[in-house]
Amino acid sequence: MRFGRIATPEGMTFAVIDDEGTTAKAIAGTPFTEPEYTGKEWALEDVRLLAPTLPSKIVAVGRNYADHVAEVFKQSAEHLPPTIFIKPSTCVVGPGAPIKIPDFATGVEFEGELAIVYGVPCKNVKASEWKSVVRGVTIINDVSSRDLQFQDGQWARAKGMDTFGPIGPWIETDLDKFDFENLPIKAHLTHDGKTETKQDSNSNQMIMSIGEMVEWVTASFTMLPGDVQATGSPAGTAVMVPGDYIEVEIPGIGSLGNPVERA
Amino acid sequence: MRFGRIATPEGMTFAVIDDEGTTAKAIAGTPFTEPEYTGKEWALEDVRLLAPTLPSKIVAVGRNYADHVAEVFKQSAEHLPPTIFIKPSTCVVGPGAPIKIPDFATGVEFEGELAIVYGVPCKNVKASEWKSVVRGVTIINDVSSRDLQFQDGQWARAKGMDTFGPIGPWIETDLDKFDFENLPIKAHLTHDGKTETKQDSNSNQMIMSIGEMVEWVTASFTMLPGDVQATGSPAGTAVMVPGDYIEVEIPGIGSLGNPVERA
């Protein structure tokens, strides 16, 4: 099942999106319980999709794809293992919302990633139990100012500033339909009217598995319903400039597209 | 005026605490508006003080005291300027609540710091205007596993795990009573029944002023009411072990004390 959040002429609501991605059926509560339909239904083209979750935090695992570690850090993953960083709730935007780049954030790159959305409050979850605490999966673009990332040392500003956390288009709850060890991840960048596929990788390049990441993250942090865990970016990240459009695509979920603007 | 949050036999509420720190008068709303008293009043010894704010995020400025940069990073502040990191809402605990150290978090140190609490949603605030967006000041103990901090590179886990963000005892809103360029900050560690003053510094050691930090932080992050900005730790941080008790003291605010336990 696909849960989205939509802006309608009657206000904001969570909704169930059909598999064709054409209609949204409003629900009374949140995506964390069985859906209670209100009876309101919208054509998706008549509403605006918002970020499908309102996380209290995004816990992200960095350096989780060997190919990306090599391209960005010029080192082997063996010498530079995965690390954890946090993106705050205020960086989250939905599908279609602009990524706004201020003057001081130079070298801003996209990073298309699989994201998991927690469904229950949890701590100290075993790797093998990860699906029991996760409501579903979605896509995150871990937008990063590569210059600020290295200048600051800490990644909070480079990756956490307003609009640097596009999430969507919806939460897919049917985890069994995915082979998480063989899931394609692509990112297509449109620049000057020309679209190129920049990221074209697969979750089989992950260093830590999703279960291992859940166990690692929940050993330190209580995760709350709606909280997002980003699972790392594969290789192929590249600079975006105002006027560009970036679309991240994961089969079985869909695609998350955002224009790039000057803040 | 001092705003606290208290657990009473009748539930949780925000309250105005008197200057002697002996009584709590319950208010109907939050600390972000003029207080509307409910008429309920408690002796402070009959209730439990909780963290006085429920931040959506803590944005912290690290390496903001030259003496602390020298002791931890073995470099001069000139070569290692201040940096920004994020502590998530789930690390926050109140006065008296235990700091719980898991086995894998070694070298856990206290860092007593002045914290500001934002009062309005804001972005791009000028340094000279900082008091207009801040509701008040409080104390934060930026608890840090020094080993994880250097092992991970990113500080999210070392400084952001559950219970590593004690805040309190209350929010002091009368900013005019402070000289923020000459404010003593102390931390007293009790170990094996013996109390020693470990941090004994002053905000006159800050590299960036509070206003400069507000301008820097709000250039990247929208700050929301209740969000906390930590202003950096002075020198004197030291390792705490289970059984210890750590108390951070700032004149004009009060003191924030927490026991240390094994998680």
UniProtKB/TrEMBL annotation, chains A, B:
The answer to whether keyword Metal-binding applies is yes
- Note whether Hydrolase occurs among the keywords: yes
- Tell me a Gene Ontology molecular-function term this record carries: hydrolase activity
**Residue ranges of every copy of the Fumarylacetoacetase-like C-terminal domain listed in the record:** 57-260
Q: Which UniProt keywords apply?
A: Hydrolase, Metal-binding
Domain called Rv2993c-like N-terminal: residue spans? 1-52
Per the similarity annotation, which family is this?
A: Belongs to the FAH family.
What is the protein name for this chain? Fumarylacetoacetate hydrolase family protein
Q: Which organism does this record belong to?
A: Corynebacterium stercoris
